[in-house]
Fold:
Amino acid sequence: MKKLLSLLLCALMMGCASAASLPSPETLITLSDDQILVDGAPITGNRDARVYLSYQTEVHPDVAPQLQGLENRVITITDNGAYRITGSAHDAQIAVKADENDHVRLILDNMEITCRTAPGIVIHSAYDPRVPGQYGAVIHLAEGSENKVTGSHTARILETDEKFDGAVDSLVSLGFEGSGKLTVDADNEGIEVKYGHMTVNGGVFDIQAGDDPLNVSEDQVGTLTVNGGHLFSSVKPLAGGEGDGIDSNGFIIFNGGTIINLAHPSSQDSGIDSDMGSTVNGGLIVGAGNMYDPIEAEGSAQLFMMLEFNEPTNDLVVVTDQGGKPVFAYDFPHDYMYIAFSSPELKEGIYHVYLGGEIEGISENGLYTRIDSYIPGVQMTHGGGTAQQRNAFPAPDAPGMEMPVGGMNGMNGPDDPGRGFGGQGMGDPGRGMGGMDINALMQAYQQLDLNEILKGKDLDELLQGKDLNQLLTGFAITDLLTEEEIKAYLGDADPMLLQMPGGFGGFGGGFGGFGGPRSLENSAETATGDFFLSRENTGFTNLTAIR
Structure:
C-alpha cells in the first residue's frame, strides 16, 4: 500500500512539475494604424495589464524639425510569456518592461513597425543570465514570415535617461531564433545590445544602418555570438557617415551560419570589429572595410584569410586553390581596402586571388554560395610592402599633404588624461605616423615637465593667434615650444609628428596615443602570386594586380 501511495505521489509531483514548466499560452498582438488588438480585443491603457498602450513624444535634439511633437504609440509588454506580433503600424513602438525573472519571447509573424523618432523595438527589462550565449529575452522569427523594423534612436536629456542608439535596442542580453526574415532599416545603429550579450541562432537578416548594423556595446564584456542563420549587415554609404559592419566592445564569436559584414565604404572602419578579440570556429564569413582589425588566429578553430589591397576595390574577388577550384567569391558593392573571409573549405596550402573574371553560380547579397564555373580575371600578387590606408586627414601646416589615420583600437598613452589624438589613441602607440618607430620619442615625452618648462613663459603671448578651441583636444608640442627648445628636449624628432594635435592632453597632460595606420605586417619581402595560408600565416598585404 505504501509503495502504491508512493508511486501515486511521485506521479502527482511529476505532473505538477510538468505543468509548471509548460510555457504560458501565446498572446496575440495585432498591429494596425487604426487600432491595436490583444487576443482580438482592443488594447487597454491600464498599466497593470500584461500588454497596455501608452503615448510618447520624443523631445531630444536629434528629432527632425518636421517630426517635432510627433506622438508615438507604445505597446508595452510587462509579463513573462510568448507574444506573437503580426500586422503593420506606423509611428509605433514595441516595448518590453518585464520583471527581472521573466522570460519574454517576441514572435514576429509578418510584422512591420515604423518608428521615426525612437527604436521600433526596445527591451528595457527581462531576465538576463549575463552569460555569453544565453538570454531571457528572445526575438523569434516565425517560419515563412517576413518582418521589418524601421527605427531611429534617442538621446540622453537627463542623467537618468537611457540613450538608445539602435532601431532594435535592448538593455539586457538578447537572442534571435527561428527561420523567418527580419529587415532592419535604421538611421543610426541597427540592432544594439547595450548591456550583456547578443546571440544569433537562426533567421535571415538584412540590416541597413546609418552606423554599426550590429553592436554589442558593454565595454570589455559584451559578447556577440553567431551560431546560425544568414546575416547581411551593411552601413549605408551616406556622405560623411561611418560605421563597422559588425561591432562589439567586447568579443565576437562566429560558430556557424552565413555572415556578411560591410563597413561604411569611405570611413576608417572595419568589416569585423571587436575590442577584445574575434574568433572564427565555423560558418561562411565575410568582412570588408578600410581599417585592419585582427581576428584571433590562435583561438579560432577555422582558418580565415585577411587581404589588404594596395588600392580600394569594388570588384568581384575570387580565391582559388592551387588547382584552380574557387573556394570564395564575393562581388563587392563598394570600394574597400581590407577584406576578411572564412570558409569551412579553407585548408592550409597555396591559394591564388583574382579580380573580376566570368563567374556562374548562385549568389546572395554578393556572396557566391555555389560556383558552377569561373574564368579567372586579373591575378593578384601580395607582399613587397603594405598598402597605404585610404582614409587620411590634411597634414597640419602642409597644404596638399595628407597623413593616414590610425585605427581606433590603438592603446592610450601611459597617462590616460593625455588621451592623445582623437581621444582614443590612434593606432599602435609604438608605430608612429607612417609606421615609424617612436618609442624613443615617447620616452622623451614622458620625461618632460611642462609645468616646469613653461613656468617663465607669458601665456598671453604664447596663446596669441592660437585657436583656443584646441584646448578641447590639447595643443601640439609645436604650439608650446620653440624649434630650439624642441631640439634641446626631444632631439631630431619628425616635425610632422610633432605638429599632431593631442600630443599632450592639455597643459601637463600625459602622452597621448600617437600612432600610424594599423596594418598587417608585410606578408612577403618580394611580391608573389602564391598565397600560402597556414595557422601562423593568415594575412596578405599590398595586393596588386599583375598587369
Remarks:
- The chain has six helices and 36 strands.
- The CA atoms of residues 8 and 248 lie 53 Å apart.
